[in-house]
Amino acid sequence: MKVTAVIMAGGRGERFWPKSRNSLPKQFLCLTADGETMLQKTVKRLSPLVATEDIFIVTNAAYTGLVTEQLPDLPRENILAEPMARNTAPCIGLAAAVIRKKYDDAVMLVLPSDHLIQYEEMYTDTLTQAIAMAEAGDNLVTIGITPTYPETGYGYIRFMRDGDKKIPHGVYQVECFVEKPDLETAKDYLKSRKYLWNSGMFVWKLSTILKNFEALMPDIFNGLGAITDAFGTPQFDAVLQEKFASFPSESIDFGIMEKAENIYTLPASFGWDDVGSWLALERINPTNECGNVVSGDVITIGTEKSIICGGSRLIAAVGVSDLIVVDTDDAILLCAKDSTQDVKKVLENLRICNRRELI
Amino acid sequence: MKVTAVIMAGGRGERFWPKSRNSLPKQFLCLTADGETMLQKTVKRLSPLVATEDIFIVTNAAYTGLVTEQLPDLPRENILAEPMARNTAPCIGLAAAVIRKKYDDAVMLVLPSDHLIQYEEMYTDTLTQAIAMAEAGDNLVTIGITPTYPETGYGYIRFMRDGDKKIPHGVYQVECFVEKPDLETAKDYLKSRKYLWNSGMFVWKLSTILKNFEALMPDIFNGLGAITDAFGTPQFDAVLQEKFASFPSESIDFGIMEKAENIYTLPASFGWDDVGSWLALERINPTNECGNVVSGDVITIGTEKSIICGGSRLIAAVGVSDLIVVDTDDAILLCAKDSTQDVKKVLENLRICNRRELI
């Protein structure tokens, strides 16, 4: 069966300020030494599995220009612009409505645009197995990540292995999805060995997800029909605008995954990283002999365990440690490694002072 | 007797990089909130004692433009350009040679251009007393600073109080000058209560210093005659070039003060600060409630005891402490407070890489 991919690229992360701005969110940034943006890497990593013309990017209308710029080989009609942010369920619904116009049925890989994968061959193998599982029936397959520490910032998947021999090796039934836990609960999850991180990667057939929309989110399902009919016609923008505005703002996890049947998970071991803050640069980039991750025009003297992203001018760091430095033309961030969660306070401050040009 | 002032402004400090450059040394920088440069403050502070037309600036030929710019009211002929750096003895000799053309005799205040004084009235009182002591005879008067800690970066003056009733109250005889001590010696000096810091401020009569040049540095003395004769004539530059090149590169301390008779010191308590590194900004500027000294467009979140000099862009500091940040258009310095002495290593690195535009 035809395999398509839906990459969700509408997010507006603030944790990579000052490089990320409202006009340039994380998925459009290059955070690795290879010069590729997160979105470009996400698309490139799909090449063994999906043909370029079957990759669809769902993004905010404001970002279609960036997507076109960063993915010149992608057919323009594969860039789907959400008229407004409505969380993941309407986003995935829109993609399903458009793919339905192209194929009677197909496998849909639903993927975030701003995560990193360290072992791409394993990623291909895992998705291949997920695709098989999705094709085998009306299954909703999610990629689970084996937890390595009690993270409180992710949702978790509770999985189970029942005696059902029909389930292939390496695939587990999902008992339930749970929201972001507090630290104690997260520690219990880790100890229990019964939970995986919810990576937000999903695999299913077009027909399967549409059935689930029909059964669990009928308001959206009904709107999708009109969107499919209008796709490729002059009325498309107006119809999309009207229907999308009427959709509830809901996540696919809450709207469908937590209520549906036949939910399966594949525990992945392909070196997943959600690149959640500047600290991730240490995990995804090589560090030098002083434990520094350095890019740009930088001189370090007695400086260690620091992350320094140079801009257009020289950065000289003398005797500092555990510091994050990010330089841009109009703003520079200096942040202690243990304070990355407070970067958002800088943005709050900028909002209060109405300094939009810096946000 | 006429009182003149000679301000030595030829230095090329590197400790205020990146704000200070070869083309803009410390004395031409504004390091306080009042918007005045070190040189401008030095001149302003003299107004109760010396008429503007009697203030002479000796500087490097490369800096005469900066001096003219920063001191528009100063007569152009009072800016004396050293053809090359030759330490303080030739510098003071040049000033004496020029002043001699103007006055048969006069009191000379010899002052650095890059120190700060906190209590300017006391400064005026102390210099007034020093002027009286200089006028009273062929005395060489130096301003000593009562040490507050065992500084190893300054020269010291060993003073004594003998029974000689002719010495006015508050004036002490100098037993000897000593070079920069090691820490242990500095601690002993501090404990002994017999030493003062050598501030590099001197007061004497023109006739007195010329007698001393004649007796102790005859090579320089002989050259000065030709310089005096040439001053104001078309031959001046050529004569100065030739004579100055022939002068030994020697400090006034070593060349005259350590060998002369009738050396006196006035211990000053006027809040002297040599502004030796970025750390001085904490002493000479008000700190906010978090103990930060901040200038420019700066947002601090959970940041304390830091010195942040903003430039043309926003600086956001999150969770940092004891950090020095200095932003300029082409370079930004991040330096731990306990590593200011290593800033020069950045300049060494720039020299090795032949990046003159940044030095």
Strand content of chain A: 15-25%
**Count of helical stretches of chain A:** 11
The description of the largest β-sheet of chain A is: 5 strands, mixed, barrel
Biggest interface, and residues per chain?
A-B, 35 and 35 residues
What's the average pLDDT of chain A?
A: 95
Secondary-structure element pattern of chain A, one letter each: EHEHEHEEHEEEHEHHHHEEHEEEEEEH
User: Oligomeric status of the shown chains?
Assistant: homodimer
Strand order of the largest sheet of chain A: 6-9-7-8-10
Weakly predicted, low-confidence segments of chain A: none
N- to C-terminal distance of chain A: 44 Å
Strand tally of chain A is 17
Question: What shape does the CA trace of chain A take?
Answer: globular
- Based on secondary structure, the structural category of chain A is alpha/beta
- Cα gyration radius of chain A (Å): 21 Å
Helicity range of chain A: 25-40%
Summarize the structure.
Chain A is of the alpha/beta class and 359 residues long. Chain A is 31% helix and 24% strand. In chain A, the strands form four sheets. In chain A, strands 6-9-7-8-10 form a five-stranded mixed beta barrel. Chain A has a four-stranded mixed beta sheet with strand order 12-14-16-17, with no helix packed on it. In chain A, strands 5-11 form a two-stranded antiparallel sheet.
Spell out the blueprint of helices and strands.
2 copies of one chain form a homodimer.
Chain A: E1 3-8, H1 38-44, E2 55-60, H2 64-70, E3 79-82, H3 88-102, E4 107-112, E5 116-117, H4 120-135, E6 140-145, E7 156-160, E8 172-178, H5 183-192, E9 195-205, H6 206-216, H7 218-230, H8 236-246, H9 252-257, E10 263-268, E11 272-273, H10 280-284, E12 293-295, E13 298-301, E14 307-309, E15 314-318, E16 323-327, E17 331-336, H11 343-352
Parallel strand pairs in A: 1-2, 1-4, 2-3, 6-10, 12-14, 13-15, 14-16
Antiparallel strand pairs in A: 4-9, 5-11, 6-9, 7-8, 7-9, 8-10, 16-17
